[in-house]
Fold each of these.
Amino acid sequence: MRIAILTRRFDSAGGGTERDLIVTAQGLRAAGHQVTIFAEEIRGATGDWDVRRVGVGPRLGRALSLIRFAWTAAPAARRAGTDLVLSFARCVGADVMRSGGGAHASYLRAARKWRGALSATAMRLSPYHQVQMLVERQAFRSPSLKRAIAVSNFVRDDLIREFGLAPEKALTIYNGVDLDRFRPAADPSERAAIRQKFVVPASARVVAFVGNGFARKGLGFLIEAWPLVAGGAFLLVVGADRQTDKFARRASALNVGARVVFTGPQPNVEEIFHAADAFAMPSLFEPFGNVVMEAMASGLPAMTSAFSGVAELIPPSMRGFRVENPDDVGEVALRLGALFDAPASLAAEARATAEKFTWSRYASELNALLESIG
């Protein structure tokens, strides 16, 4: 089958959604399908893939550019002779829409929790965000749409609720994890070396937090809870955020600045997991949370939240680390205490849980879906 994948930006070396797209294309090609990628912006080497630009024309503002791409990408793919159109972007007329983030309207409502009412309202009223909601409504209500793929039941339920999708039309296919890259440390000396790099005592308890967008991912509440954490535990904060200084100042004001270490972005984040004893990310809104599964694949028990899709996959032995109300500092501290008391045997259980969610499993489920409707 000739399959078109639509995306606003193609980057062969990208992460996040861009990485998910590449893995998807690889899985489709391995199953014998012919894959063509249609993108508005192309970055990186493209020799491995047939990538075509679409939605290109006079320079427009981002709202108008989104409209142009949303209504031209699927028709362009069909004119190229493809049998099925799979969209990773907000596009009208695709056969299958993959949603990695849930409805944009739901995201904007949730944003009040970390941006505040005034900022969230201003964002919602901006033309760009209004256009995103408009395009999504048209895309998920299009007669062309055969299936919607969600990265979690958290997202699936949101799509059904927001767009009135028939439940049988929406399917959850969980992301996979790279089990070769993310695995427990084989060499104990690596743990000591990484801790030394970030000036963390070899004997200290260490929790890793990894991600950009600190406020949405609950870092502020982790820092507020840190004075309540016994035993001189350290928090390694990995990622980039425009307000990093604000979070660092708050840690200092709470007299835990020496125990909250901001590392900045780290290209080899698996090394951070090898230096840590546990992982924590009590997000206020997280459609899935790949990094949680990566931490578990590395053998770390993980704290997540009720507002995170990956929480659906946490085994019963780790549900005591799930934060029901991430903005409740007392609860965050309580869950951290449970995380620190976790038995060493949970390392093997965390790894075993991650091993159930491979990219090959993802590809198999995706291929079965597309072939059933192609």
Amino acid sequence: MGEMMSATPAELLASFKRLGKEFADLANSVPVTRLNESPGPDQWSAAYIIHHMADGDLHFATRYLHILAAEKPQIIAFNEEEYPERTNYADRDAQASLACFVGTHRLIEDVLSHASDSDWNRVGMHFELGEVTLKDVFAKAVSHTEAHIGQLRETLG
């Protein structure tokens, strides 16, 4: 994560775009028959990872938009432990979640490619960390995508 934190906004955007495509391509390569296979007890299936990424990116996108449009907005926590049960990962459509992920990525690429230097330095109030910049939040999201690409690769063996 430290590497992402020191990256410039342009470098972060390039990584965001590359990693988003990599995740989508990998997710699209999963045979439908394997989507719900779990590699072991208490491990997520490919479908769960795809749902998590869609939900996570929606949360991150909301954070970016709030930071851009409001003065020091409160950043709402993403309770990822509750999502699989509360939002019914077991019966959700992985293709719909993947489409959401891809669409959210495109939207954020478009929005943030037009962000000014002062936009990247705007702050939100993180529930644990206090003041964080848009760049900080975005760097965390880029690292999040990278981590789950690794998780999906491991899940697929």
